Amino acid sequence: METIRIDILNPKALKLLNNLADLNLIRIKSNDDDLSKLIKKIRSNSKEEITLENITKEVEAVRQSRNAN
C-alpha cells in the first residue's frame, strides 16, 4: 500500500475520490482523525484533567528553565 497526500483544488475531484472509496479502491483518512486519536491517547495517560492553567504552568516552567541556562 502506498500513501500520498493530495490537496484538492476542485470540489469535483473530492466527489471522484469518494466514488473510488465507495468502490473500495481507495481509503480516505482525514488528518483530523489522527490528531484526535493522539489527543485522546495523551489525555488517557493523564491522571488529572488537562486545563489551560496546567498548560500555562508547564510552558512557564520550560521558559524559566531555558532562560536559566
Shape: elongated
| Number of H/I helices | 3
Q: What is the arithmetic mean of pLDDT?
A: 86
Low-confidence stretches: none
Largest sheet: none
- Would you tell me the structural class of the helices and strands? mainly alpha
Helix and strand sequence: HHH
In whole angstroms, how far apart are the ends? 47 Å
- Total number of strands: 0
Rounded Rg: 20 Å
Strand percent estimate: under 5%
User: In total, how many domains does the architecture comprise?
Assistant: 1
Helix content: 55-70%
Summarize the structure.
The chain is mostly helical and 69 residues long. It has helices at 11-22, 31-45, 52-68.
What does this structure look like?
With 69 residues, this protein is mostly helical. The protein has one domain. 64% of the residues lie in helices and 0% in strands. It is built from three helices and no strands. The longest helix is centred in the last third of the chain and has 17 residues, at 52-68.
